[in-house]
Specification:
By secondary structure, chain A is of the alpha+beta class. Chain A has a single domain, classed as Translation Initiation Factor IF3 (2-Layer Sandwich). Chain A has two helices and four strands, in the order βαβαββ. A four-stranded mixed sheet of chain A has the order 1-2-4-3, with helices on one face. Chain A is globular. The two termini of chain A are 20 Å apart. In chain B, 37% of the residues lie in helices and 15% in strands. Chain B is globular. In chain B, α5 links the parallel β3 and β4. The chains are: A alpha+beta, B alpha/beta. At the A-B interface, α1 and α2 of A face α1 of B.
């Protein structure tokens, strides 16, 4: 997994909390910085994809590690 | 790109139906939407400082019942005193166990994200509701004011 500037553990949280927490964390970051999100909600895979498309932040990586989902989002 | 707009009319005042307006509004706000929710009739319960919402198994054949109760429990049994309270407690526990946010938290997130919460003035008067019982930041308006925003919205939902 590539480098990141900040990490958000959203394990155990269900829709829409992982997205809302991610958005809040991104708000406090600066452009070009990368956020690493860990989630256990299977719905978050499609949700983070959609979140990135609609907000213009880049989803650099999305992977499933045995029930733990990892996302890297670069702030636009 | 111009900011997208989501308009929601929230009409229901039960624990289960309180979720969709707040989940959709907070998510849309996170996606960059400008959002307004117009609370009318029983939906006004969702604006109370102290939420006392319940879920009823009555007249709700789609509700998943614990322990296969729907198989052996007659409909009339669901009308027994205490049944609604029990269902409400079970639903709240289930939501907590599954990491679903509480309504209070979702509502707060909506307000943080500048979702505009509008109470239907007519219903407030109709039910003799006291504004002091509603959370801070609520605006009071009528149908015409809602249409001003809804008419320009990209998505309009009636819940």
């Amino acid at each position: 997994m590539a480098d990141f500037d900040q990490e958000l553990d959203a394990s155990g949280l269900n829709c829409p909390l992982p997205i809302l927490r991610a958005k809040k964390t991104l708000n406090a970051m600066s452009s070009g910085q990368v956020l690493h999100i860990i989630a256990t909600d299977p719905g978050s895979v499609k949700d983070f994809d959609a979140f990135a498309k609609q907000t213009g932040n880049e989803l650099m990586e999305s992977k499933d590690e045995g029930g733990k989902f990892h996302f890297l989002i670069k702030k636009s | 790109m111009e900011q997208k707009k989501l308009a929601i009319i929230a009409t229901k005042g039960s624990l289960d139906w309180a979720y969709p307006p707040f989940i959709l509004a907070s998510t849309a706000a996170a996606l960059g939407y400008e959002v307004q929710i117009f609370f009318t009739f029983y939906g006004l319960q969702l604006l109370k400082k102290k939420l006392a919402l319940e879920v009823t198994p009555l007249g709700n054949p789609g509700m998943p019942m614990p322990l296969g109760m729907d198989k052996w429990f007659p409909v009339l049994g669901l009308a027994l005193p205490g049944m609604q309270g029990m269902m409400t407690a079970m639903m709240k526990k289930k939501m907590k166990d599954k990491g679903v946010a509480s309504l209070e938290v979702l509502r707060e997130l909506c307000q943080e994200a500048e979702v505009k919460l509008i109470a239907c003035q007519m219903t407030v008067d109709l039910f003799d509701m006291e504004k002091m019982h509603f959370i801070d930041g609520v605006e009071y308006a009528g149908a015409a004011a809602f249409f001003e925003f809804a008419g320009e919205s990209d998505i309009c939902l009636y819940i």
